[in-house]
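**Fold in tokens:**
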Amino acid sequence: MTGMFISFLGTLPMGTLNISAMQISITDGIKPALLFTSGAIVVEVVYVRLTLVAMGWFRQHKKLLKGMEWLTLVIILALAVSSFYTAMHPSVRSNPILSNSVHRFWLGAGLSAVNPLQIPFWFGWSTVLSERNLLKREDNLYVPYIAGIGFGTLIGHCIFIFGGKLLVDSMNTSQDIIQWVIGGIFLATAIIQLIRMLKHKDAISEMKEN
């Protein structure tokens, strides 16, 4: 329950993965969006498991995390540009990056894999829970903890997937307007991440603080 609650709250702020899932649900349907989310969740729980046993390895490979952060920034900017392109070309009905031949599961897994911010996030929370004796390896709590995290992420993404789809359908909003809004969200996300990186508030800095 603790893992699910933390994961659910962490999924609610607008970010690359939940907005991408929402956009896929609007343009391609609920099932592709759920497949996208499933891929993202699988990678997230793998990262959580690694943070519990191999944080030392991540600390020793800071250049890898830095490269992943820049790659994530490029992908977010590409998603923003693709959304703006779709909005300006009515004949293009969906984001070329999110609606391509790549299976949605692997697309979600790929985007989640290059997002290093979840590593210090879960390392920090796991450390806090361990210090308060709420998470002990000897009590076999890792499995239900990780399962709760996956379920919490699923609930959070479903709010965006079903909520976004319902909102668009009920308001009968133009697809072009939706693409402009989503593109703006991606662009704002990219700007925020760039500022964090320039101010050294990125994943590597957070790992040092932890």
Observations:
- The two ends are 24 Å apart (CA to CA).
- The CA atoms of residues 62 and 204 lie 6 Å apart.
- Residues 2-209 form one domain.
- The chain has one domain: 2-209.
